[in-house]
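Write out the 3D structure for:
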Amino acid sequence: MASWVSILLFLFWLSVSQAQGGSGKIPTVEFISESLINNVVQDPQTGRIYLGAVNNIFQLSPSLQKEARTETGPKKDAKTCTPPASGCQDTVLMPNSNKLLLVHPSNGSLIVCGSRYRGICSLLNLSNVEQELYYNDNKGQRTYVASIEDNVNVVSVMSNYTKNGRTFKVFLVGKGYGSLDSTKLISTRILEDYQDWVVFENIIEASAVQTAPFVLKYLHDFQHAFKEDGFVYFLFSRTLDGTDNKNLTYVSRLCENDQHYYSYTELQLTCGIKNRYNKVQAAYVAFPGKELARVMSQSGNYGTVTSFTKVLFMVAHPDDDESDSALCMYPLNSINQQLMDIISACYSDSGEISGVPAVDVPYSSQTYTACLSNLAKDALGNFKCGAEHLPSPLASKPAFALKADAVLTMSVHLTAVTVAVENDHTIAFLGSANGEVFKVHLRPGEYGNKPYSYVGNNIGDKVNKNLFLDQSQSHLYITTEKRILLEVTCTRRSECRRAEEKNGWLWSPKQQCVKIVSFSPSKCMSCVSSQWGCQWNTQDHTCSDADNSVVGSHIIKHRQSANCPLFENPDPVLIPVGYKTRISFEGINLKHYQGHHFTIGSELMTKEEDVSFEGGPFYTFSGFNIPATFRFVENPTVQDHQPKASFVCGGRNIVVTGSGFDIIQTAIMKVQGSNWSASELAHEKNDTVIQFQSPTVNGSLNQHLKTVIKLDNWEKELKPFHYHPNPSFNNLQNKIITANSMIIVTGRGFSKAMTTKEAQAFVGDVQCVVNTLQDDKLFLEPPSTTPGARTRAKHQHRETGSEDLELMIKFGKGEWVVDSVQYEKKNDFPLYIIIPAVIVPMLLIITISVYCYRRKSQQAEREYEKVKHQLENLEESVRDRCKKEFTDLMIEMEDHTNDLNEGRIPFLDYKTYTDRVFFLPSKDGANDVMITGKLDIPEARKATVIQSLNQFSNLLNSKTFLINFIRTLERSHDFNARAKVYFASLLTVALHGKLEYYTDIMRTLLLELMEEYVNSKNPKLMLRRSETVVERMLCNWMSICLYQFLKDSAGEPLYKLFKAIKHQIEKGPVDVRVKKAKYTLNDTGLLGDDVEYSVLTLQVLVQGEGPDVTPVKVLNCDTISQVKEKIIEQVYRNLPYSQRPKVDSVTLEWRPGSTGQILSDLDLTSQKEGRWKRINTLAHYNVRDNATLVLSKVQHTQQNYDQNQENHEERNALLEDDKVFHLVRPTDELDETKSKRGSIKDKSMTKAITEIYLTRLLSVKGTLQQFVDDFFRSVLCSGAVVPPAVKYFFDFLDEQALKHNNVDEETIHIWKTNSLPLRFWVNILKNPHFIFDVHVSEVVDASLSVIAQTFMDACTKSEHKLSRDSPSNKLLYAKEISTYKKMVDDYYKGIRQMVSVSDQDMNTHLAEVSRSHTDKLNTHVALHQLYQYASKYYDGIIASLEEDPAAQSKQLALRLQQIAAALENKVTDL
């Protein structure tokens, strides 16, 4: 049995015409959300309402009936989680607030962004929000749009973006700052994948709108975004500059087609006397009514305002008093004029208006004004949207804010505003935090700007910003914290039938209520039960106002619903399946329908049946015959389709997946054009898969094509599905093919809608294997058997010879004869001739070659294994010693480790670090002007020079100029490698304030360099040396980006390694003259002689610093200067090296008895050996263990001697005598002669001595091994924190490599090695003083060089076979090198698998570096030094600029000439 009640019945009143009358209105209704409502938008096409709430998105009808709902939370997340959340730790269920809701009508989607997963967005179907059209959480930071912070507002507006002739739909986002958010103030987000862009990616990178460096200062709070006349506007409040916390309201504007935000300009808006109402709360943009426009113009405060001039209506309150609010008005033409005045002042008048500074440059670390004074005012029109060489962003100073009086003040917290115009009057609706909505007639005069009415009753809850009218301006939607209400008490005169009658339309400001409100629903019961007191006319089926003058039985009065006609009480309630059953109903109040004809139907049954009158209240109809086997089921669902494209020829196999397909009788795939269609029946089907061949398109591709599948009567559009033009083919270059050749077919468009597996190829009647398919090439394997001619009537054959065969390509239904080919047969020589003539000699040659090769290889392999085995034995012999040495070293470094734990690693500040990395290797070293910062400029010219250098800085910020500048220099023959390095470092400092721009220049130059190496040189050599400006720029860029990583991660293990090497070396004798040590990693720095020595502990007293003594360990073979160094290092260990006393500024006195003795390196007691003099040591003075020494400072540098020193002349003679030695006396001429005649026995000892030395090297290596490993791990561990710059740059190299066929994985590996390990880490490893405030001695440097070389070897792909002649460093680390190589490979692979770092995120990082450090650098000095190059190569630069059309349009040559005239103090007519 089937339940009859479950079938819904509809009566069709066929005999009654529907009377038209009254204006139907929707009654006041509301929708209640379970959670807080964040955003509400309306689809202008359908009127649907979309409500974004915490954890939910609701789709409502215009009358607020719920149509659909999708849950968006709670979600498992963590504040620090980088999506996807499955890879995050410590996630908990967290609510998902809606941060952004935007209708994208052109493709029927709703843009939804929430507070979870870093503000990721999704696209929902406008027709059914339960259907998600797009969501992806693994595209990285570039797709993070909104904020995870509840108090951060996000606003947005739809726009367009044009690239490569294509126009894309985008949306611009304005967003405040949250601690873990993306840090763009303004971003432009694309809504489709295109080339390297992905959906929701920010496609415009500009430092103009970067908040990261200025978070603590500005505190942006966005309230509104809108478009008008080619501009996009954002309304927000922010603080001025961080000097106080007072908020100021700003409107910012940028050109809609500005793809760099060069036009971004902010204008302050003041509201009320002395800007009392300084913080914007809500805003609305609308045309004013004629009356308001007239009053505004007459007031003289707003300029000329017409009813066609849009006005920004804004409600605001003071920072300190939310209960006091005001409404202010700003015509858009006034806003635009003030903005143009600000821009003009900056471009042409040095930022001044009438001699008063008017322009600020916000969000910039520049301490000087960037405004120009040399752009002609008549040229402003050419730069309406700014330019790369013009200053940006700009903002008005407070004195030049756009001022407005408060047109309404209220002692209430206003939170929302919307405006309507009716009969030329302007009405404002204002929502409040108390739950009130006020109606205000905006017209000073008779009624004044005071609320004349309330909308509805007091709502009670706070009215939020979502207050708006529908498209017809008839209904007002009011949103509170958890409710949205539809109010219809706003009746429009145009909708009132009796508006012209007396008292038919009453104007509310006179406090007279409207007496009649018409309502005309179509059904009796809803009419008479409405709240307006309506009545129903059963004769003409109309609902009208209550009217006592109209009487009769056909009038059903208000609240008399019991008299309404209807059918009810069906009998029977249950009907059997398979039998037609008579059904009867009870008709009620149908006396006025006697004689009328009725039919009945069901929404499940399209058939209608006649209804007959049975007498009394009963009616019957013969019933439906429901078959026993018939049942209703859900429509099938379509989940996906693959592939998503076809050629117009059709025939491609399309697989549609879903569920519920087994009940479908007919499945068709159809493509529809403007006036044609084509279809294909499914060729295979089961419950979850249907397969079609794509239909052939006969029409033009210029029209819109719609591809659908029709499953019985149910249709589903396949989106996306694209038809591409058929491929085109070129004639073959080689028409002779053999069984061993490769057939290459060229053309265009092959890969648009076909794959290697789908494509087919034939030579004659034999099919070929399609080996590779590219967009412009097909690689075919020829037939292995001789093909014959293929005769096909449907193809037109060319007239060819008997041996010509057709080469045919088949894609789907499309078949193309590419060309005629000839298949060359094999020569039929008999095998008995081929074998003895060719094969036997060949085998003989191969056998001999293989034998020789294997013999040589085995010999080399045996040698390698022998050396390796010897090394292992040597290492085994020193292993125990290494363990002891390592333990001793760790004990000796324990105090230092405590220092590390207290944060005392002596990191250099950023400026000193960059000075040393960039300029210390220059020819002037520490005296370079970039390090000293001293410019020799006369005081009288200083101001002029500084201003000119600022203008030169602006010129360098023009990409066109800078690229021309660099190219001109690099074409000059005298611009050598040293000059290129120095120039690049100057450029790095000069552009440090805009590092994202510097990065853009670097990328551009790298792309050119890459093309040069890939096309004309060996690609593997790229980036190996700094032979170009850009290679040094890359080195500097890495140094800048990895500074913080050094401080946070790699710095500590590097410092420990440096200190461990220094400790280990100083444990044994170090010869200060020949710079060799007993303990070292470098065989050339190994002290060969066996020097006797003992360890002493000295008790050191520092004069003038109290009675405490410091124990210091030294060697009795140490020189006095070495002893001083060890004492200074121990006594002043808590001070960085630069703050410690220098060796030559202290004296050391030994007090063995009642008298003291000054200790010196050289004095009259120094021992002589022939012509050589030995430097004094502690052993020379016979200083014993536990001796007390006094360290005292001297006022000036001098060499110190004992109390018996002779006159000044003799002292000088001692100093100037270079025949001195320390531990090992250099061989003189006589000794050299003897050594040449050395005995065979001495020579036979060489091998043994070498092994002894190697053992000592291995001992030091083993002792230091843990420190080396720790440093390598800190640098080569992708599992830990990888600097974003490394990921960003490696991805850049990977992307570029894919674009070149001759760049293999080994080449990419070499590029990465050349750009990071060799260009940065080796430099830092060999020069610890670049990052630490330390002194690196030559003997320490020698050991660091060995580790650096090992690091370099680990990064290479080539294998080094060991032999006895191998360098010692390769022998030392032979066992570890394979491990290190794997670390490098894993590091590169790990980085490749990481989430990409977007341009936006990289620029955010760079902007923070710019803000933090630029003001400390010698920027003006760098600009001055750069100008010297511009001056030296002036003529070439001018010529290059004058030949460049882009430079001509920007007058760059003229600007350089003006700067040159000012800097060189020349008189010019320019």
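The mean pLDDT is 81.
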